[in-house]
Each structure stands twice: as structure tokens, then as C-alpha cells.
């Protein structure tokens, strides 16, 4: 009897595991975001991101700065239980407090004049800087960024990071030779950037 119970329990766990892994392929709203599917599948499998209760992933939804650092913390093991945020607009009762605090302690965010702006949608430039810091890239060279026709629209503090991430194939520009650093990233784009960064860290990015 005990053996039967154990077998049933193991079968249940296995079934749940298969369902969890397969669930990445069941989002109802991925028709126009096929290019992000492999990255989303990988991150969902590793519990870094998830969908919504209605069965959607909402790939075109913009990502807030707080949400992006949460993804980074999960992807790269940056979360720390007792970190301090020290931002005037981040309070301990907010769901993202410890995530932002962990990012601050890991030194990949600095904020704006004492504020983090957690609810603000994150731009491609801001995302590039955060990821470059996490991966500890050399951001001294700006040659690659200078090849984009919108180089003058990039904030000076992001040019080196953008150059490094494009060089390493973690991020890329658009077909019109722009980078669009001020553009807010979507959940689909965030998934691709973070997955590319993970592949780079693991040495699997070709």
C-alpha cells in the first residue's frame, strides 16, 4: 500500500513538472511575438517570469523598472533578504522593496537624484546599463554605438553599455540602423534581453 502511495505521489509530481514546463507554450497571446517564445519558454521553466491568471503573458505590455530588477535578481541570483534600498520613493511596505534593495546592494542600479522611480517603464538604455553592470562588461569603448544613426539621442551614461551589449549580441539594433534607447521595453523584449544575458554568462551565446 505504501509503495502504491509513493508511486502515485511521484507520478503526480512528474505530471505537475511536465505541466509547469509545458505551460510556457500555452499562452494565448503570442501570435505576434513568436520571436520571443524561446526566451519566454526558458525563463518560465526556470521560474524567472510567469504569465497571468487568465492564461496570457501580455508580451506587449511595458515593463516597470521595479519589475525589470526583479527579473534580473531571479535570473542572476542577486536577491538578498536584508538589503536596504535607500531610495526616497521605495518603501518597505511595497512588494518590490527587497528586490530594489537587492539591486542597489549588487551595485547595478543607482537611481536618479535619490529616487529609483520604480513604477516608471524602463527604457532600452536603462536596461542596457543594468545588464552591462550585472555582466561586468567593459563599457569604455563606444565604437559600436556610434554606428547607430540615433547615437545623438542616446544618453551619454548609456553609450558604453549599449556598445558592449550589442558587441556581445545581448541586445541589437533595428533594421533601420537605430537603437532607440528611449523606447520602453516590453515583457517580450525584457525576456529576450535577460535570456541572452544568461546565455552570455553561461558561455552558450554564439
Question: What's this entry about, in short?
Answer:
Keywords: Signal. This protein is mainly alpha-helical.
Structural class, by secondary structure, is: mainly alpha
* Overall pLDDT level: 89
Radius of gyration (Å)? 19 Å
Query: Fraction of residues in helices?
Result: 40-55%
Give an overview of the whole structure:
The model is unreliable at 2-23 (pLDDT under 50). This protein has one domain (27-202). It is 44% helix and 0% strand. The longest helix has 21 residues, at 2-22. The chain has 206 residues and is mainly α. The protein has 7 helices and no strands. The protein has helices spanning 2-22, 37-45, 65-76, 97-105, 124-134, 156-167, 187-202.
